[in-house]
Amino acid sequence: xxxxxxxxxxxxxxxxxxxxxxxxxxxxxxxxxxxxxxxxxxxxxxxxxxxxxxxxxxxxxxxxxxxxxxxxxxxxxxxxxxxxxxxxxxxxxxxxxxxxxxxxxxxxxxxxxxxxxxxxxxxxxxxxxxxxxxxxxxxxxxxxxxxxxxxxxxxxxxxxxxxxxxxxxxxxxxxxxxxxxxxxxxxxxxxxxxxxxxxxxxxxxxxxxxxxxxxxxxxxxxxxxxxxxxxxxxxxxxxxxxxxxxxxxxxxxxxxxxxxxxxxxx
Length: 266
Known about the structure:
This protein is an alpha+beta fold. It has helices spanning 3-27, 32-44, 48-60, 66-79, 82-95, 100-111, 124-133, 138-161, 168-194; strands at 201-204, 208-212, 221-226, 230-237, 240-244, 251-255, 259-261. Residues 1-27 have low confidence and may be disordered.
């Protein structure tokens, strides 16, 4: 091969490499923090549709967190989409159950809905799980349970090792109390893990939807729901979703696109 051909081949190879690198760099998605900042700016300027699109793009990329779901809920609320606002506030509440801003805006969004449906659970385990998750996350409770078990076991170990110490009575009281609290916290943790109310909670996102006696329009209409109504998700079948009102006795089938699951799938 002549020198000119070698030079041409090398030039083409370099050009291909530069093109590949440039394409790869341009195809990279912008950092999540930059997208969040840009979306927040759009929201502050009242560009709600653009802000929602940016927030949703982050959620689609797998980014979550209280801030994202809270901001997304705010954008939907300002847009008048109460259903999706409530769904995202609930996701934020699951992550940060003691966040007062989330609670306040969730209550505000619920007050704007047409259907007044109180949240109830069908079983004792679900009720305990729901109450527990309103104040603490499973991760936090797991850390507390481990700490209590450690202190309780340490106290009982000291009782066995030091049989003649003068403080056996208070040490026994501390150890037994700590182990009892550890047992209760572990029981609550198991309830929260077994029955996550957010996984079975759905929110109506359609402005109005009819619930039918079966998965199809050929069945009789049973009741009507409006945007923002919270329901329990029971089953899905061929583009239809079976939902239940609090208590579980009133059930019906709605088109799946009319109800959004709160569960984040993680």
